[in-house]
Amino acid sequence: MTTQADTIYVEDLHAWAKGDLRNMAALQLLDASNLIAHHWIDQFIKATPWLHFDFDAMKRQLRRAPLGAGERAVAEAALSLAGELDTDLGSIALSLDQDNLAALLDAIALAGGKPEMRQ
């Protein structure tokens, strides 16, 4: 099954977000966790009228998402970073595996304008 993320390069989404640290961080987290490749995410990648990621629509659909607990935690963290969901990132961080925790910390550093803090 070909997904929207396969058709549209993730780098193009990152280019769309460039300059908006919150959206850049949220996309970085979705990408690093590989959640960007989940078929459920396809509906939020919009190509018209311009290529963008619809975080607001993702927030509205989160309750019905066919995601596991770890994937849901990453999705909630991404929405929080994008400014779409008020959630406790500390609690989310405690629920993540090591790879996703590292991805979240990198994304938080980027959102804060200090990506070098994690390098």
Concise synopsis of the structure shown:
By secondary structure, the chain is mainly alpha-helical. It contains seven helices and two strands; from the N terminus they run αααββαααα. Helices cover 55% and strands 3% of the residues.
Q: For the residues shown, what is the average pLDDT?
A: 88
What is Rg? 13 Å
Main sheet strand line-up: 1-2
Low-confidence sequence ranges: none
Order of helices and strands: HHHEEHHHH
Biggest pleated-sheet summary: 2 strands, antiparallel
The level of helicity is 40-55%
How much of the sequence lies in strands comes to: under 5%
What structural class is derived from the secondary structure elements?
Answer: mainly alpha
Question: What are its keywords?
Answer:
119 residues; 7 helices; globular; two-stranded antiparallel sheet; mainly alpha
Task: Give the helix/strand layout.
Blueprint: H1 4-7, H2 10-17, H3 21-32, E1 45-46, E2 52-53, H4 55-61, H5 69-81, H6 89-95, H7 98-111
Antiparallel strand pairs: 1-2
Helix pairs in contact: 2-3, 3-5, 3-7, 5-6, 5-7
Task: Give a verbal description of the structure.
Helix content is 55%, strand content 3%. The protein is mainly alpha-helical and 119 residues long. A two-stranded antiparallel ribbon has the order 1-2. A hairpin with a 5-residue loop joins strand 1 and strand 2. The protein is globular. The model has no long low-confidence stretch (mean pLDDT 88).
